[in-house]
Design brief:
General stress protein; 7-stranded antiparallel beta sheet; alpha+beta; elongated; YdaG_split_barrel_FMN-bd; Stress-Dev_Protein; Pnp Oxidase, Chain A
Length: 163
């Protein structure tokens, strides 16, 4: 495995661990009026560099992604993770069936084979995260930031390139 492959895999694993178990994300698209965010359920699939969401074509986000596929996805729990990427509309029936659950019958008021149901695949390009678990570590980090000391070695706030 090359150094580039190894560092990419490490970056993916870091993001995977940070977002693991967080069901809902704030999904941001670009509309004609500006940025628009809404909560969306992430599909239960292990993060491999791509995020998956299910929706319908008759939503504003569908048109916004067609017009401009740049998106941002934010997760917040024990850490805060902001993932920048490119969205793609996927209409693969087998993939929709794989991700479908009984809750969608009620929420989307349809079935997975409805041609209006789509998947959004977000290919992650970069992720920035802020850890918030260790109070002493956070206090030290904030003190260093306030006093203009180097915080590069801290892993409380990092940006990870995924491409």
């Amino acid at each position: 495995m090359s150094t580039l492959d190894k560092s990419h895999q490490e970056a993916v694993e870091t993001v995977r661990e940070l977002i693991k178990g967080i069901d809902t994300a704030m999904f941001t698209t670009i509309s004609e009026e500006g940025l628009v965010s809404r909560p969306m359920k992430t599909q239960e699939v292990e993060f491999d560099g791509d995020l998956w969401f299910m929706t319908k074509k008759d939503t504003s986000k569908f048109g916004e992604i067609i017009h401009d596929p740049r998106v941002n996805v934010v997760y917040a729990d024990k850490s805060y993770v902001s993932i920048r990427g490119t969205a793609k509309i996927v209409e693969d029936l087998e993939k929709k069936k794989e991700f479908w659950s009984a809750g969608y019958n009620t929420f989307l008021k349809t079935t997975y084979d409805d041609p209006d149901v789509i998947l959004i695949q977000v290919h992650a390009e970069a992720a920035e995260y802020w850890k918030s678990g260790n109070l002493a570590e956070m206090a030290t980090y904030m003190f260093k930031r306030i006093t203009n000391q180097d915080t590069e070695k801290s892993d409380l706030n990092k940006t990870i390139e995924l491409e």
